[in-house]
Amino acid sequence: MILEIVTVPNPILEQKTKPVEKLDRTILNLAKNMVETCRNAQGIGLAAPQVGKSIRLCIINLEHMGIPPFVLVNPKITNRSWKKVEMEEGCLSIPGIYGIVKRPERIKVKALNLEGKENELEADGLLARVIQHEVDHLDGILITSKLIRRTDGTESKDRKQLKE
Question: Which domains does the chain have, with CATH numbers?
Answer without folding.
Answer: 11-163 (3.90.45.10)
